[in-house]
Amino acid sequence: MLISMTQASVLITGASSGLGAALARNYAAPGLSLWLGGRDAARLERVALACRAKGAQVECRPLDVTDRDAMEHWILDADRQRPLSLVIANAGISGGTGNRLGETAAQTRAIFAANLDGVLNSVLPAIPLMKSRRCGQIALMASLAGFRGFPSAPAYAASKGAVRLWGEGLRGWLAEDGVGVSVVCPGFVETNMTAGNRFPMPLLLSADRAAAIIRAGIDANQARIAFPRRLAALVWLLAALPPAWTDTLLARVPRKQSINNPV
After folding, report:
1. Of 44, 49, 62, 184, which is least surrounded by CB within 10 A?
2. How far apart are CA 5 and CA 27, in angstroms?
3. Is 122 exposed, middle or buried (0-12, 13-18, 19+ CB in 10 A)?
């Protein structure tokens, strides 16, 4: 069965800024336990203070989602203290080919490590716990960029595409065990990750507005939370059309500047 947010226990990675911080603030309420992870301890504690002011019980853990052992220890420890109701695998980093060297080998590996391995490290320890209780929800942060390979940020798009496909398959597998899975596919959101973009970002949303949309989708156990709808429809069309029709168009998309902020 799906969970109620009353007396719930929610774990969020990448919670020190951007969407992760906005989600933490959105969920914070009296009686709710929040487990917040991120690489920047000072920013993480500021988010925690805001959530405690709303009545939530908050525990912070400065850590990197690419550290498999540390993530497993944290998730198991949190679940022992209060069984996890919801895990939001949000942490990730961006990339791009806007720099002179493009996406280097090191940058490509770092993007996949954070965006894909980091999601696995955030979710895999929680699955058997939730399956045993036949209760719980998991949300995976993908992106609208994960529907088609973009020459402006190939590693980022590919890593998010892998998260999307894994999450959609995971949903079908875990449904019979009473565990819900939602794949989140946002468009452009005002965060540190998009702050370096030097090109127009259509239908740009605030982090708080995006968090509210994500929360509503998770509450409804929505399979794919893709937004804004008009941009999602456009990306879906680009993915559906033959590459021979879209390669020339996408080659004209402005190159994204690489940015790697702690989250």
Report:
1. 49
2. 8
3. buried
Q: What is the CATH number of the domain that holds 77?
A: 3.40.50.720
Distance CA 127, CA 170 (A): 10
The boundaries of the domain holding residue 207 are 9-251
CA dist., res. 172 & res. 180, Å (int): 9
CB within 8 Å of 185: residues ≥ 6 apart: 142, 143, 144, 146, 147, 160, 164, 224, 225, 226, 227, 232
Euclidean distance between CA atoms 28 and 53, whole angstroms: 9
Q: What are 182's strand-pairing partners?
A: 139
Task: Using pLDDT thresholds of 50, 70 and 90, give the confidence band for residue 62.
Answer: very high
The C-alpha atoms of residue 24 and residue 67 are separated, in whole angstroms, by: 22
Q: Strand, helix or coil at 137?
A: strand
* Total domains present in the chain: 1
The pTM of this model reads 0.89
Q: Which residues are catalytic?
A: 156
Backbone angles phi, psi at 89, to 5 degrees: -85, 90
| Residues 182-200 pLDDT 10s | 999 999 888 776 556 665 6
Question: Using CA atoms, how far apart are residues 122 and 59, in angstroms rounded to an integer?
Answer: 16
The per-residue pLDDT for range 77-107, each reduced to its tens digit, is 999 999 999 999 999 998 654 555 567 899 9
Residue in this structure with the two tokens 């709710």, named with its chain if needed: 32
